[in-house]
Amino acid sequence: MEIRYIDLVSEVGELGKEIIQGSSYGKNDFEVTDKPQDEIGDCLFSLLALCCSLNINAEETVKNSLNKYERRFNERGSIGSHN
Fold it and tell me: Number of structural domains, the chain?
């Protein structure tokens, strides 16, 4: 299980690198290319692999989160955890 978490963190870091470089370290608007899309795919794969190793139903978990964010938005007009 730990290796799956390490893989996920690594992939998120690679995505961050692409976003930072794609915006010239925040100086320009981000230009979407194939590379960040590939990295997002790698992040999703790593997250799903982590779910599998923890015996967590990813589809059910996403549905629960969507319901939580929808409830927050309806109650507060924001999806953030704080007002």
Answer: 1
